[in-house]
Write a structure and sequence with these properties.
Layout (H helix, E strand, L loop, with lengths): L1 E5 L3 H12 L3 E5 L3 H8 L10 H10 L3 E4 L2 H7 L2 E4 L14 H13 L4 E5 L7 H10 L6 E5 L9 H6 L4 E4 L3 H11 L9 E4 L1 H32 L3 H9 L20 H14 L5 H13 L3 H8 L8 E5 L14 H11 L3 E5 L4 H8 L4 E2 L12 E4 L11 H7 L4 E4 L6 H6 L3 E3 L4
Parallel strand pairs: 1-2, 1-4, 2-3, 4-5, 5-6, 7-8, 9-10, 9-12, 10-11, 12-13, 13-14
Helix pairs in contact: 1-3, 5-6, 9-11, 9-12, 11-12
The structure holds uridine-5'-diphosphate-xylopyranose.
Uridine-5'-diphosphate-xylopyranose (UDX) binds next to helix 9.
């Protein structure tokens, strides 16, 4: 099938590349000329495992192309995916200016029937607004469909190619049939394509992300409480997770959720509630508890150093908001770094992928190390903020020989408490 993807951010790029992978002819459109030029030369602008291989293969096969011309995209595609940014407004709601701006243009440019697909995470009712914006100028028939993505960073290619479910919000049989044809190769395993009205599809995305954010936040509170009463959150987590109604996943406590989706989506749903005369009290609590959780290690560190952090050398392992990504949006590490710098610490950090992004943001406020061990030279404490696999089985005697004092504050519960203590470390983790 012939597809255009408008917007080559994270979602657009993964969508376009993975749609080309099953034989569709995909044209990706972006207004950023440099980025388009780069992509035409085969350079993937983001780090996402496996994406580079698919990208190269499909460009070579002539199924994946790039352009800056929206007009060209609309001529090429029968299905037009909108994967445009929906940044957080000052008041927490999602800003629709990019989506509605493009919708306006689409109305002026389309010459025959198109299915316009909202792929971005958008508030309930956006598909109506997109329809309205296109209708203002359109002289031909078109349909607007809501098709939220459920891609996890670091696993986006796999999530796209083998989705647990595909949600299609559509009130047009013609559009639904096209969407089912497009997605059929991805659900051979028997996973469902769930068709519903547009508003329910839009809400499904927000409800899923907000639920997962609440699940994590609930466990973070249980972990904090475990510390008060001397229970072990790892045991509680396993005890709870074996109940199939609860499930084992997303029960890992830590230093709060971050990233481009959960923080933004929870706030946007809360705001959307208020706009519709509904106060989501549970989301208010999730937002506040998560903000507190990002800094949960700080009082523990202060306590260890008798409230005097001035001049202390702190090593940080992990800057990305989670492993397998270079994304630092809403990363707990940045909140901790701010607090530690404020208190007078010297910070040396290592992250396998995210250091360039942090360097752009913080300049020389902190030092960056070439390896995880280099970060530890003369450190008074190590703080772990991302659970990258390479941090999971370190050489503890090497760590000890490098550090000024063998002290680890682990925001991701990577190690067995007794093992690390037996190695001679002071070890502080979450809820254990
Ligand atoms: C999320 C959703 O999973 C995905 O479906 C949606 O489309 C986009 O948002 P992503 O933000 O890439 O994906 O990351 P995810 O792996 O879901 O983790 C989100 C955050 O929760 C991270 O900060 C992670 O560290 C945290 N987390 C996750 C926990 O603290 N504990 C857990 O048990 C799981």
């Amino acid at each position: 099938m012939k597809i255009a993807v408008i917007g080559t951010g994270y979602v657009g790029l993964v969508t376009g590349t993975c749609l080309a992978e099953t034989g569709n002819e995909v044209l990706c459109i972006d207004i950023d000329k440099n980025k388009v030029k780069q992509m035409q030369e085969g350079v993937v602008p983001i780090y996402e495992p496996h994406l580079d291989v698919l990208f190269e293969r499909n460009i070579k096969a002539n199924r994946l192309k790039f352009s800056t011309s929206l007009e060209e995209g609309l001529e090429h595609g029968d299905i037009i995916f909108l994967a445009l940014p929906t940044p957080e407004d000052e008041d927490g709601s999602a800003d629709l200016k990019y989506i509605l701006g493009v919708a306006d243009e689409i109305g002026k440019l389309i010459k025959d029937y198109k299915v316009i697909v909202d792929k971005s995470t958008v508030p309930v009712g956006t598909s109506d607004k997109v329809k309205e914006a296109i209708s203002k100028n359109a002289k031909v028939d078109f349909d607007v469909v809501s098709n939220p993505e459920f891609l996890r960073e670091g696993f986006a290619v796999d999530d796209f190619l083998k989705p647990e479910r595909i949600v299609v919000g559509s009130s047009s049989d013609r559009a639904t049939k096209l969407m089912e044809k497009l997605y059929k190769p991805y659900v051979r395993s028997g996973n469902p394509i769930i068709v519903m009205d547009e508003k329910s599809a839009e809400l499904t995305k927000y409800a899923s992300n907000a639920f997962l954010a609440a699940k994590i936040t609930f466990m973070n509170e249980i972990a904090n409480f475990c510390e008060k009463v001397g229970a072990d959150v790892d045991k509680v987590r396993i005890g709870m997770g074996t109940d199939s109604r609860i499930g084992k996943r997303f029960l890992f406590p830590g230093i709060g959720y971050g990233g481009s989706c959960f923080p933004k989506d929870v706030k946007a749903l809360h705001k959307s509630g208020l706009e519709n005369n509904y106060n989501f009290k549970i989301l208010d609590a999730v937002i506040n508890v998560n903000a507190r959780q990002k800094l949960v290690l700080i009082p523990k560190i202060e306590n260890h150093f008798n409230n005097n952090l001035e001049g202390k050398n702190i090593a940080i392992w992990g800057l990305a908001f989670k492993p397998e990504t270079d994304d630092i949006r809403e990363a707990p590490s940045l909140y901790m770094i701010d607090a530690l710098l404020e208190a007078g610490c010297n910070i040396t950090a290592f992250d396998p992928e995210a250091m360039p992004n942090v360097k752009r943001k913080l300049g020389n406020k902190i030092q960056f190390a070439d390896s995880m061990y280099d970060a530890l030279k003369d450190a008074d404490a190590l703080v772990i903020s991302t659970e990258w696999s390479i941090f999971r089985t370190p050489d503890f005697s090497k760590i000890k020989s490098l550090m000024a004092s063998p002290t680890i504050f682990d925001g991701r519960n990577l190690y067995d408490v007794n093992d690390v203590k037996n190695e001679g470390f002071k070890y502080v983790s979450i809820g254990r």
